[in-house]
Amino acid sequence: MFFSIWTNQYPYQLSNYLIPLDQSFGWSTQSSVDPWAVLYRNMLEGAGRLYDALSANAEVSEKDYFVRTEELPAMKERYTSIDPYPNPKEVVFKKDITKIDELNQKFYDLNYPSVAFIQAGAFIHAVDDNPDTCWNSYHAPKVGDHFGLQFVTPTAVKSIVLHSLKVSLKDMSSKISVHVSDRAGSEWTLCRHSLKSTSDHKVQLDVNCRPTGSTSSNGLFHQVKVQFDAELEKAIEVCGIEVGDMVL
Fold first, then answer.
1. Using alpha carbons only, what angle is made at residue 77 by residues 75 and 192, rounded to the nearest 5 degrees?
2. Residue 198 near residue 164 (C-beta atoms within 8 A)
3. pLDDT class of 212 with cuts at 50, 70, 90
4. pLDDT tops 60 at residue 13
5. Which of 30, 100, 231, 233 has the greatest number of C-beta atoms within 10 Å?
6. pTM as predicted
7. What are the phi and psi torsion angles at 111 (to 5°)?
């Protein structure tokens, strides 16, 4: 267990049952003691003690023992604040769980998407230059939720077009606002936008962004985001985004 945790394989240990040994003459075969409950309880206690010991040792916990390679920057960075998974801080388990099956069931009871859903509906499908693949937010957007792009080079933001396949976007324009920012995203400017055209599966906006402070250089911006100013009743779907001459 020590080395499996230290090499970041603890999830593998949790998802694979231990191989039972022949207990024909074991100490617990003729008693009412549940050997698996004892084993899992000891594993849980051991993992907790190891975590506390490593966390308390700054010389160990602040080091990174994994070799990480840097990837070339993408042509554009895409992001969204809408996370389909539960917030880890809100997932609290009682310490009386002694079996892996109990822990698994607690996780299965959470509201989270399946692997198939993520493969088909991740945000990358909104900007993969394929109109037949789509991002699905899974949860209905709340006030303050947003999605957008970060450009490698400053870009003019004069129009935004959103496409969908199954979910209607017709009423979205009255519930969103458009913001632009500098590279760091430390200062955002609210843009004026007007509805140029709309249909069930396409929204086209004319956007007017006036540079303020450090958010722009000659009317060019590093980031743009579409923010929800009203809570939606259902999840949204975006299959393509156009920003000016950039079609994704």
1. 110
2. no
3. low
4. no
5. 100
6. 0.65
7. -90, 95
